[in-house]
Amino acid sequence: MWVRRDLRVRDHPALGKALEDPEGTALLFVLDPVLWRRAGAVRRAWLAGNLAALDERTGGRLVIRQGDPAQVVPAVAAEVAATQVHVSAETTPYGRRRDDRVADALDRAGVSWCPTGSPYAVGPGRVRTGSGGPYQVFTPFARAWRDHGWPDPAPTPRSPAFLALDSDQRARKALDAARQLIDDVADLPDLPTPGEEAALRRWRSFRDGALADYAAGRDRPDLDGTSRLSPYLSLGVLHPRTLLADLQARRGQGPQTLVTELAWREFYADVLWHHPDSAWRDLKPALAGMRYSAEEDALDAWRTGTTGYPVVDAGMRQLLAEGWMHNRVRMITGSFLTKDLHAWWPAGARHFLRHLVDADLASNNHGWQWVAGTGTDASPYFRVFNPVSQGQRFDPDGEYVRRWVPELRHLPGRSAHEPWSHPEGYAHGYPLRLVDHAEERREALERYAEVRGG
């Protein structure tokens, strides 16, 4: 069993299939240097923590090897005389290409490639329109996705026994090497507790608490109103099917809103499946001629949370401090980068992928295109988030801003969103506004008109 984005034991169809073999099952993770190079320190730390948790969960039997999976997986299969390699099907562009290479190498060695399930409740590409094509808009996709349904959670294997391979301690050395690379990074954020048990505890706490008010609370960054499950979902420590099964018996707007949010995650995976080039290119080419002109010092101010717009700066500082950012604030900071600073969205997408503990290519990059107005089901380009009114609406008492921007903690209530309107607003060194939002909004709309033919 080669695990990738499925670092768990419960509700794991591929693992269940692998464990049917009476000869025993080896549990393998490959530290792929391509993916390791692409990940920032936060994602590496989160991966290492969850690998350690899975290793403990399986009695120290997780085999960890480093190298090209097309070489490593066949080598481990030969080491245990395996006739099958089980996986949860990968869906990202790189993952699909890599798996094709591995499957070909295994086929040449006479080993069967056995994919079962995926990181999603409904595998990307399976929800189709009546004519057999992919959905282009979220709402009809979500309706069809719900109608399609999903299997019940897979049974948890009873006391699974895994083969012990590494008498040479290569697995321990690989995990230690990963940890060392992380330990060498200063100022690593405090991350969630890794592992399947921690994920389930977080789910139960949210389910029995904030879920009831989730429909309204999820938009308030000053409140603990979101599930904070995205880091676990990103590595498959928790499967969305597990959550959906638990939500089926729950009524009310909160549970239904959470189902819709899970549908967005599945929709973006489906879009990327059908349009792999959209990972780093505009899905809709209508704005291909858009002028972008963000200066590097402006990008640095955005990255470091020193733009002079409090809710934008609070979000960017939260990202650096926690490896996470509230979703409403992700939209606000994304709009500011693309509409106020006139940057092309990949500049922001790369920064988020580097620092987010829950980094997910499909959700991240298509979320950015939603804000930028270049993706499927996109927010229209002429919709420009006002960072002041957005802050006042969703952080009405200024608590979120004061939490992350200490230079503004002396300002009471809503005034934290407009330090320029308070006589003591800049008393503690908060930066002046980088740009004038009203002017940059007009500039953004003029550029939009240029490419839309007036």
Key features of this structure:
single chain; 454 residues; mainly alpha; Rossmann fold; Serine Threonine Protein Phosphatase 5, Tetratricopeptide repeat; DNA Cyclobutane Dipyrimidine Photolyase, subunit A, domain 3; 3 domains; two-stranded parallel ribbon; globular
Describe this structure in words.
This protein has 454 residues and is mainly alpha-helical. It has 3 domains: 118 residues, Rossmann fold (3-Layer(aba) Sandwich), CATH 3.40.50; 107 residues, Serine Threonine Protein Phosphatase 5, Tetratricopeptide repeat (Alpha Horseshoe), CATH 1.25.40; 167 residues, DNA Cyclobutane Dipyrimidine Photolyase, subunit A, domain 3, CATH 1.10.579.10. Helices cover 48% and strands 4% of the residues. The protein has 20 helices and 4 strands. It has a two-stranded parallel ribbon with strand order 1-2. It has a two-stranded parallel ribbon with strand order 3-4. Helix 5 links the parallel strand 3 and strand 4. The radius of gyration is 23 Å and the shape is globular.
Summarize the structure.
It is built from 20 helices and four strands. The chain has 454 residues and is mainly α. The longest helix has 22 residues, at 253-274.
What is the C-alpha radius of gyration, as a whole number of Å? 23 Å
Order of helices and strands: HEHHEHEHEHHHHHHHHHHHHHHH
* The first-level CATH class name of the largest domain: Mainly Alpha
As laid out across the biggest beta sheet, the strand order is 1-2
- Largest sheet geometry: 2 strands, parallel
What is the subunit organization of this protein? single chain
- Domains, number: 3
CATH topology (level 3) name of the largest domain: DNA Cyclobutane Dipyrimidine Photolyase, subunit A, domain 3
Query: Uncertain spans, ≥5 residues at pLDDT below 50?
Result: none
CATH superfamily caption of the largest domain: DNA Cyclobutane Dipyrimidine Photolyase, subunit A, domain 3
Helix/strand/pairing category: mainly alpha
Average pLDDT confidence is 93
